[in-house]
Specification:
Layout (H helix, E strand, L loop, with lengths): L1 H10 L1 E4 L12 E4 L7 E4 L4 E4 L5 E3 L2 E4 L12 E8 L6 E8 L2 E4 L7 E3 L9 E3 L8 E9 L2 E11 L2 E5 L10 H10 L3 E2 L2 H9 L8 E2 L4 E6 L14 E7 L8 E6 L4 E5 L8 H10 L3 E2 L2 H11 L7 E2 L5 E5 L12 E6 L9 E7 L2
Parallel strand pairs: 4-13, 16-19, 22-25
Antiparallel strand pairs: 1-2, 3-6, 5-11, 7-8, 7-12, 8-9, 10-11, 12-13, 14-19, 15-19, 16-17, 17-18, 20-25, 21-25, 22-23, 23-24
Subcellular location: Secreted, Extracellular space, Extracellular matrix
Protein name: Hyaluronan and proteoglycan link protein 1
Organism: Buteo japonicus
Length: 355
């Protein structure tokens, strides 16, 4: 009898080996399915959800038993676990775990995530006060006794991708410096999907830049000789993966809307950089960041033909309505350069955060 029971257990157990079992043995997923009783199913009503920075969102997830309408068998406590998939899909970041009355959130999600629980089979996750880093793919896993199943939901954020290089010039950032450069400008390093969507919306940029997965790519809508050749097809050109410490490129950053007011400061005179910083402070604001001028231009339609200082020492101006002497050929955030901070005089763009 014992031998028969052992054979039955072997027949209903199987393992999904990880591609790299030697280094990720602890992440192997074991599925065990009983031959008797309904099979647990986890489904997401929508595979992709859209939101924006500062908003609230619900990632849908419900669980059922095949051939029955009940949510659970009642014999085992149900464990719900939400994780975020990384760009290489080999690791997962813990987000939220619930079992019975026990609840736990992790890292940046602490205090911002909850289960909706609109019904006994609802495992949907509510994320409040969304930040840029929340963008990505999330896995909902439900475990009941020996059964488990998963569903994946993508959270997309409305925003804008922009190329960035520092005062030092083109191709001066390793991957880690690129990440910090984006954070300093109120943004995060863009993903491939975000860059691809920006290319489909018309982004054309010949300089290669880092993306969040460690690859180096650039978007071309108008093929030409310096950018892969004029006879090639438009697309996102891929340089591949490079050494994150030694290789140096530009970076593509992503930002979303902001909780504040972006504006050009009306001032009686033009200003040096230090004077511009102080002028914004006296107005109850801070000198604006590059990500903020791009967000105001792309998401709010901000249009101003006056060149102004930004926090990184660059001078730019946003044009949403192309016209003579103000970017006549295209809507864009025009880049003047990195002028001498002590001697060159310009206006200034400020940002005042809302409380």
């Amino acid at each position: 009898m014992k031998s028969l029971l052992f054979l039955v257990l072997i027949s209903v157990c199987w393992a999904e080996p990880h591609p790299d079992n030697s280094s990720l043995e602890h992440e192997r997923i074991i599925h065990i399915q009983a031959e008797n009783g309904p099979r647990l199913l986890v489904v997401a009503e929508q595979a992709k959800i859209f939101s924006h920075r500062g908003g609230n969102v619900t990632l849908p997830c419900k669980f059922y038993h095949e051939h029955t309408s009940t949510a659970g068998s009642g014999t085992h406590k149900i464990r719900v676990k939400w994780t975020k998939l990384t760009s290489d899909y080999l690791k997962e970041v813990d987000v939220f775990v619930a079992m019975g009355h026990h609840r736990k959130s992790y890292g940046n999600y602490h205090g911002r995530v909850f289960l909706r629980e609109s019904s006994e089979n609802d495992a949907s996750l509510i994320i409040t006060n969304i930040i840029l880093e929340d963008y990505g793919r999330y896995k909902c896993e439900v475990i009941e006794g020996l059964e488990d199943d998963t569903a994946v939901v993508a959270l997309n954020l409305e925003g804008v991708v922009f190329p960035y290089s520092p005062r030092l010039g083109r191709y001066n950032l390793n991957f880690h410096e690129a990440q910090r450069a984006c954070l300093d400008q109120d943004s995060v390093i863009a993903s491939f999907d975000q860059l691809y969507d920006a290319w489909r919306s018309g982004l054309d940029w010949c300089n290669a830049g880092w993306l969040s997965d460690g690859s180096v790519q650039y978007p071309i809508t108008k093929p030409r000789e310096p950018c892969g050749g004029k006879n090639t097809v438009p697309g996102v050109r891929n340089y591949g993966f490079w050494d994150k410490d030694k290789s140096r490129y530009d970076v593509f950053c992503f930002t979303s809307n902001f909780n504040g007011r972006f504006y050009y400061l009306i001032h009686p005179t033009k200003l040096t950089y230090d004077e511009a910083v102080q002028a914004c402070l006296r107005d109850g604001a801070q000198i604006a960041k590059v990500g903020q001028i791009f967000a105001a231009w792309k998401l709010l339609g901000y249009d101003r033909c006056d060149a102004g200082w930004l926090a990184d020492g660059s001078v730019r101006y946003p044009i949403s309505r192309p016209r003579k002497r103000c970017s006549p050929n295209e809507a864009a955030v025009r880049f003047v350069g990195f002028p001498d901070k002590k001697h060159k005089l310009y206006g200034v763009y400020c940002f005042r955060a809302y409380n």
